[in-house]
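User: Fold this; C-alpha cells only.

Assistant: Input:
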Amino acid sequence: MTLWFHPLCAAYKRPDAILQTLAETSEGVPDRETLERAARGNSAHRRLPRIDGVQRAPNSRAKCRSCREPIERGTWRMRLVFFEEGRFLPGGFVHLDCRGAHFENHDVLDPMLHFSPDLSDDERAELARACGAEGPRAFKAPAPGETPG
C-alpha cells in the first residue's frame, strides 16, 4: 500500500522514512532543511510522532495519558495518535502541563502548532508562552495551502 503525506506532515509523523528518503535524494527537494530539521527533531523520542495537535478540552471526561488525572474542561490538551496498519488511530490526550514528563522535555511546540491549523494567532501566542517559546514561529497561522515552518 502506498501512503501519501504532505512533506512536512511526513517529517513529523514518519521521521525515519523521511530521513531515509532525504539521504537517498540528492537534489530537487523543496525546503529540504526544514524537512530534515523537523524529522530529526521528531525522531529524537518515540512518542513525538504521536503528536496530532492541541485543543481545549470540550468536557472533563478524558484522562491524561501521562498523569492519569482528568483533563478539565477548557484547559489545553494535546491530541495523540498511533500509526498502525497504515492508519492513524486516536491515542488519547496529554495535559499541556504534562508534556515535559510525557515527551521527556523535547520541544513539542512546532508539531503541536502544525497539526492545529484552526488556532487563532492569539491562541498560538498563548501556547508559545505556555511552552516557554519566544519569537515569530508560534504567532502566525499558515495561510490555506501554505506550509508552516
